[in-house]
């Protein structure tokens, strides 16, 4: 059996130009290493905050690279250049608003500015796309909240079976009847 593919997209004008290091993309990759027991491969992209580039990259990772999960960081705030949610909505067949609702609820326990966040998630074919905030601490808090539902969501969209390291995070799957 081949390795599961997970896409990681950092949307940042400055990181994509090498002005600063992409610590957010690294934080997602490190979290996946902690969470997953299944063999997996990261398909990583660091791109500018351009909606057309974001859309093309999401499509590439889902449709061509075969990523069952694509996790983005950056571009989810209210600034004019923050267009990740719009790009996600444009490429998805179904939106999954519960992910964003839970991530904001969790983030509000730490910072009042979480109400400014526009994180979302959606389904494109057999891929789940999740938009995360840009700060590594917030990335982990949000993933800790939503990831228990991710493997079952991927089951439901006929993606690969994902096994988690239950010492770190436990996936929830309903009991078979």
Question: What does this entry look like structurally?
Answer:
- This protein is of the alpha/beta class and 177 residues long.
- The chain has a single domain, classed as Molybdenum Cofactor Biosythetic Enzyme, Chain A, CATH 3.40.980.10.
- Helices cover 38% and strands 19% of the residues.
- It is built from seven helices and six strands, in the order βααβαβαβαββαα.
- The protein has a six-stranded mixed beta sheet, sandwiched between helices.
- A hairpin with a 2-residue loop joins β5 and β6 (127-132).
- α2 runs parallel beside α6, α3 packs across α4 and α5 (97-107) packs across α6.
Describe the structure concisely for a colleague.
The protein is of the alpha/beta class and 177 residues long.
What spatial form do the alpha-carbon principal axes imply?
globular
Order of helices and strands: EHHEHEHEHEEHH
- N→C terminal distance: 28 Å
Number of strands: 6
What is the CATH third-level topology name? Molybdenum Cofactor Biosythetic Enzyme, Chain A
Strand content: 15-25%
Q: What's the total helix number? A: 7
CATH architecture heading: 3-Layer(aba) Sandwich
Broad structural category: alpha/beta
Which value, in Å, is the CA radius of gyration?
15 Å
As residue ranges, the low-confidence spans are none
**CATH H-level superfamily:** MoaB/Mog-like domain
| Overall residue-averaged pLDDT value | 96
Helix content range = 25-40%
How would you sum up the major sheet? 6 strands, mixed
- Biggest sheet strand order reads 2-1-3-6-5-4
Query: What's the CATH first level?
Result: Alpha Beta
For the record, the count of structural domains works out to 1
């Amino acid at each position: 059996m081949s390795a599961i593919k997970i896409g990681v997209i950092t949307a940042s004008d400055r990181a994509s130009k090498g002005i600063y290091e992409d610590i957010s993309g690294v934080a997602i990759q490190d979290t996946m290493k902690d969470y997953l027991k299944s063999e997996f491969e990261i398909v990583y992209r660091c791109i500018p905050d351009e909606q057309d580039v974001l859309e093309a990259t999401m499509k590439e990772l889902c449709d061509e690279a075969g990523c069952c999960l694509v996790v983005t960081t950056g571009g989810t705030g209210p600034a004019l250049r923050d267009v990740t949610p719009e790009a996600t909505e444009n490429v998805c067949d179904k939106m999954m608003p519960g992910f964003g609702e839970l991530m904001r609820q969790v983030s509000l326990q730490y910072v009042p500015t979480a109400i400014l966040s526009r994180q979302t998630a959606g389904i494109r074919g057999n891929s789940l796309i999740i938009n995360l905030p840009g700060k590594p601490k917030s990335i982990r808090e949000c993933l800790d909240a939503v990831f228990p539902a991710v493997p079952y969501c991927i089951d439901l969209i006929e993606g690969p079976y994902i096994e988690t390291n239950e010492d770190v995070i436990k996936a929830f799957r309903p009991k078979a009847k």
